[in-house]
Design a protein that fits this description.
Strand content: under 5%
Structural class: mainly alpha
Low-confidence stretches: 192-197, 395-438
Shape: globular
Radius of gyration: 21 Å
Number of helices: 17
Order of helices and strands: HHHHHHHHHHHHHHHHH
Oligomer: single chain
């Protein structure tokens, strides 16, 4: 019988999945439009094909999350999704016309759209302390996604410069092959409740709870604010006269700040609970984009706004993963993670890109970032309302309460909260030290 891998090895395998997935995305997102252009596509066609990821993120993650919740075979589904992504990437080698390229691109996004919600749900279960996820260990795993992304952007640019843009589909295929290898090395994990014949609980009832509804509203508006940066930040800086090298350096600063926060987040999350981090991130987002909108001509201001990415993205994402797994435990976890992806990075991406483009055409780039500031302030208000709704529900120990003494298996210094949903007992074949069975 093969011995189960050590807890450290388990986390290393999840880190490998995170690193290879985001490395693949780090090549596809910035360089796919250049490859599309080399195939002779029009600007309109390039924009349409590039937007397909946001459109597929509106429904794909939930389908994969539903399958994971109802089957309990999340690791197996991660492997299927990775295999589908590799097959789609290989298909890119044989297409050149706009329509076949669009079809294969959709298939690629339909496949890799399942990796993150299933991966995050599985990892959240492994790192569950009974009071939320262990923030230190989660950060040490998730940081490899950021490292993989920035490494792929830098190395991919150099390779494509050397080999020509025609090598793009080969590079995408290689990285998706590495993702499949990493997925195949994940240890099997099964939750005890899947041995019963009871159907998976419905998710709509949970969404109707005020604390959950306000939480997702906050996620939506805070991430909606970031679409101005993802879609228009580089274009805005070029219009202001910054060189492309400076633009690239500013993006690198943001990613570097994100990496540092993820690596050290265990220390920071002992100071505030996740509900408070949600508010801090929204407030920092409003300040960030107000600075970009009004003071982008001053390089020191831009440097500070990019450094704030540690709060506006990294802290926000870590808090969201913790709150999702507490609001959606057990057989709801996969769909909860999927809803986070859909509301945070699917619908908001589509609306932000279209709405931001409309504003820019009429009022200029600064208007899009002022709108982002307003969206972040709305997100802050929703986060405050989520905390109040949690208090009214009763029995929840939230951010302003003094931390109780940690019980067995709870990470020292981690703020304790009453579970946001009824407890569901689960077990894993590779439980990590300090994890409470629930």
């Amino acid at each position: 019988m093969t011995a189960a891998p050590a807890p450290g090895a388990v986390l290393a395998r999840f880190a490998a999945v995170s690193g290879t997935y985001f490395a693949a995305m780090g090549v596809f997102a910035p360089y796919a439009p250049l490859w599309f252009q080399s195939l002779g596509m029009s600007t309109l066609a390039i924009g349409a094909v590039s937007s397909l990821q946001s459109w597929t993120r509106v429904f794909t993650p939930y389908a994969w999350g539903w399958l994971g919740d109802h089957s309990g075979k999340r690791v197996e589904l991660i492997r299927i999704a990775a295999a589908g992504a590799l097959l789609s990437a290989l298909a890119l080698l044989g297409v050149r016309a706009a329509l076949p390229v669009a079809v294969v691109t959709v298939l690629l996004f339909l496949a890799n759209g399942g990796v993150v919600p299933l991966y995050e749900a599985t990892l959240a279960h492994l790192l569950n302390t009974g009071a939320g996820i262990d923030p230190a260990r989660y950060g040490r795993v998730r940081v490899w996604g950021s490292i993989g992304f920035i490494s792929a952007v830098a190395a991919g640019g150099a390779l494509l410069q050397w080999l020509s843009i025609g090598a793009f589909p080969w590079l995408v295929a290689v990285l998706n092959a590495l993702l499949l290898v990493a997925a195949l090395r994940l240890p099997p994990q099964r939750d005890e409740w899947h041995a019963s014949d009871e159907p998976a609980p419905p998710v709509l009832r949970r969404l109707r709870e005020p604390v959950v509804a306000w939480f997702f509203a906050s996620v939506f508006f805070t991430v909606l604010a970031h679409t101005a940066m993802y879609a228009f930040f580089s274009l805005y800086l070029v219009e202001l006269g910054y060189s492309k090298a400076t633009v690239g350096a500013l993006w690198a600063v943001a990613t570097g700040a994100e990496i540092v926060f993820f690596w050290q987040q265990g220390r920071w999350f002992r100071r505030l609970a996740s509900e408070r981090w949600l508010q801090v991130a929204a407030a920092a987002t409003a300040l960030r984009f107000a600075g970009v909108a009004g003071l982008a001509a001053w390089p020191p201001v831009l440097l500070l706004t990019q450094l704030s990415h540690a709060l506006t993205f990294a802290a926000h994402h870590a808090a969201c993963i913790d709150l999702v797994q507490r609001h959606f435990p057990g057989r709801l976890r996969g769909r909860g993670q999927a809803l986070y992806t859909i509301l945070g990075y699917g619908i908001s991406g589509v609306l932000g890109g279209v709405g931001g483009g409309w504003l820019i055409e009429r009022l200029g780039y600064a208007a899009a970032f002022w709108a982002a500031t307003l969206a972040a302030l709305v997100g802050l208000g929703c986060a405050v309302q989520a905390q109040r709704a949690g208090r009214r529900r009763g029995g929840a120990e939230l951010a302003t309460a003094a931390p109780a003494a940690p019980g067995p298996g709870v990470a020292p210094g981690l703020p304790l909260h009453a579970e946001a949903a009824p407890h569901v007992q689960v077990v894993t074949s590779n439980a990590l030290p300090g994890e409470n069975a629930r």
